[in-house]
Amino acid sequence: MREGPGAGAGPVRAFLRKYACIALFLAAWELMSRGGLVNPVFFPPFSVVVETVWSMTLQGTMLPHVKASLTRALYGFVLAAAAGVPAGLLLGAWHSGLRRHLDMPFEVLSQINPFLLFHVLILFMGIDEAPKIAIVFWTCLWPILFSSMNGASSVNPLLVRAGRAFGLGRAGLLVKIVAPASSPLVLSGLRLALGYSMFMLIAAEMMGASRGLGWLALTTQETFQVNSMYASVVVIAFLGLALDGAFLLAGRRFLAVSREGFMNSAE
Known about the structure:
The structure is a single chain. By secondary structure, the protein is mostly helical. The chain has one domain (72-260): Orthogonal Bundle (MetI-like fold), CATH 1.10.3720.10. Helix content is 81%, strand content 0%. It has ten helices and no strands. It has helices spanning 9-34, 46-59, 63-93, 96-110, 114-125, 129-153, 157-165, 170-207, 213-222, 226-261. The N and C termini lie close together (10 Å). Residues 263-267 have low confidence and may be disordered.
């Protein structure tokens, strides 16, 4: 079944509304600071912050921090996806008994405060890159694992039986039936984890780093470089939006392509 011509209009409108709200917020920020409703010394206009971002970029003081933060965040996210998706699909599809035994330990582990865990990781790994990547990995792992398990366990059993009737083994069923049918929930978990990766990384960089956007925001705050502090915060926010938007578009494209050859009979 093909979707009607207006089927994608809803997500597009939601996407436009989201960014329209951001534009309104930035306009209000500019007007309040320019109009004196807030003290521009502590809350400079958005245009001044953008000028600061541009100036720091030209001077070469912004991009090294962006590169450091993105590298750490993406390494941790990719490692979590590489571990969480296969483990979640296997536990959800084939090992339901083991999953029931692991539910409680997983719930307990996922509730451990990452900020406390960061200090433990520093004791074992030092203060180099490893603990920052590890804390991002830990934070991203749980939404990916849980969404993959839920996606695999909710696959229509008639599809699995049909695959077995066509002679597919466990590996074939996992690749050709379970993974495509689980992809919407898996992608939702991956998108959530990608947002967590930047959030937790910035906090980790504030606690122990010598470069990165989190370190830059903390350092400029402590030295009262207000414009530079806001510049780092704005870059963090727009990087998060860019990553989320890119993943959302890529995920929709992936789902559209996968639907061409696969349809869940429950629909």
